[in-house]
Amino acid sequence: MSALLERQREFADALTGSLHAVAEKVIGDAIPAEGRLQVYADRFRAGLLEALANTFPVTRALVGEAFFAQTARAFLIFDPPRSPILSLYGDGFPTFLAALPDLGGHHYLPDIAAFEWALNIAAQAEDAALLEPQDLPDPEDTAQAGLSLHPSVQRLSTPFPVSEIWQVHQPDSPAVDRIKMAGSSERLLVWRRGIEVCWHKLNHGEDRLLAELAGGASLGAAALAASNYADFDFPASFSWMLDGGIFVKADAAL
Amino acid sequence: MTDQKPIAFPGPARLAPEQIGIGLRPPHHADLLAVRPQIGWLEIHAETYMGGGAARWYLEQVRAQWPVAVQGTGLGLGGSELPEPEHLERLARLVDWLDPALVSEHLAWCGIDGRYYNDLLPIPYTAESLEHCCRNVDIVQTRLKRPLLMANPATYLRFRESQIAEAEFLSRLSTETGCGILCDVNNLYVSSVNHVGRESALAVAEAYLDSLPAPAVHEIRIGGHSESEADGRLILVDDHAALVSEPVWRLYASAVQRFPHAATLLEWDNNLPPLSHLVAEAEHAARQRAAALRPSDLPGNGIMPDNITEGGDERAA
């Protein structure tokens, strides 16, 4: 193995665990090698903790700063970034939260985190040219056509009233006495229109329509599958989706 | 020093050296477009603008009004691995679209074995690491079809096995690959204090500036650092969270005298103040630069540029 590669691996160990292996390769003087390495370890932890706090602000508010920091530090040692793009750090955090033995009664916390992750991804997904109504072919051909979803589009399904909980933790949100938890499952759509991140509660039929389209079904086949749900109103749903910038021109990724 | 390969640097000609640039950070996006302050140019972190959405939208407005330079922090060219192909493609797409005045990266590594550590991490300066770094810079320059500037990092430690002085390493990297050098005088001061102590730091840093190949230095970077402690001893941390310190202004004056053709960038990342504070600090930098280049203030006459009060070794004549 190259000496440089070996040194990098030892250094990575120093950031996430033991300083020992690389410390003896580092010059110690008035400041011992361990003290110097600790500067890097502290920067690594502080930087990623801040990144997670920025991406998951409501999750943090729900559990409090101390619990969040403790959990985030455990996560960042367990699962350091897989991308050099810092804003893409944290995709595993909702799952990590779900595996914790005690969420202090916040059973919905992983789903809140998943929603915040979806908002984060929607904010920075690739741009794409939107499908305009005049781009649609004749109705018969439209039914045969597949439709491409905007790169920012994500769907979440949760047994909890995630969007309501999230909403009351927004800065300008009116005070809410209590949120009904039972029977408040949500199917959420998150996407970006222009530079604005949007979300919308889907009914069962809309959720199925988008799932089918994402899987490559034609619009006709997707609408047929969605029409199994009594709450589905194709013209109304398709209209707001088209206006809302859910669909993009074929091969429109810029 | 051997002769440099002839390289075309179309970028720097687009940045007038007397016009100071500032680092563009997303919290300043809206203010920048609303106020349109008098600034020479802007430098972006490549990794902040690799997706779409608001960041890209604002960048599109900014590039229409100011020259823009790109600073990459994610390729880790000092490491043993090849530049990660997907990340290099993302950078290439950004650079192709933006056509920036300059593109820079760092003499550092940031990830290994598919994991990234969100920092510019130090390498030992050896024949082996120089070979890796030359190879990596070659790959990136070939893909981007333009020369890179390679920046000196702020470091908190040195490796026992290092055999080449950092300035010499950068100089040889430049000779071998045709890359330019980005002289970050804040990093230089931080590293110097951290390795030789505050008393000797300025003299060591001045010697470092002397040993850089002047024609290869195309950008000078200034920024703030903070004082911290490691095992009870002073250590400077390059956090870009404060005004430029007096010793760094002093090194800046020296750097400007040695590299008068180089563009200047002011960076601020953490504890970000209002945009107007950065603009004021950039104006201050422009005055410092002009003062450093007044004939009466050039080295050898014992006169210091204004605003330099902190003690330390006199500049070498």
CATH fold node name of the domain at 125-254 in chain A: Outer Surface Protein A, domain 3
Categorize the overall geometry of chain A.
elongated
Number of helical segments of chain B? 9
Q: Please tell me the overall pLDDT of chain A.
A: 93
What is the domain total for the residues of chain B?
1
CATH superfamily of chain B: Divalent-metal-dependent TIM barrel enzymes
Proportion of helical residues of chain B? 25-40%
Low-confidence residue ranges of chain A: none
**What gyration radius of chain A follows from the Cα positions, in whole Å?**
23 Å
Strand content of chain B: 15-25%
What's the overall geometry of chain B? globular
**Helix fraction bin of chain A:** 40-55%
N- and C-termini, Cα separation of chain A:
41 Å
Largest chain-chain contact?
Answer: A-B, 52 and 51 residues
Q: Estimate what percentage of residues of chain A fall within beta strands.
A: 5-15%
CATH fold topology of chain B: TIM Barrel
Strand order of the largest sheet of chain B: 1-2-3-4-7-8-9-12
First-residue to last-residue Cα separation of chain B: 22 Å
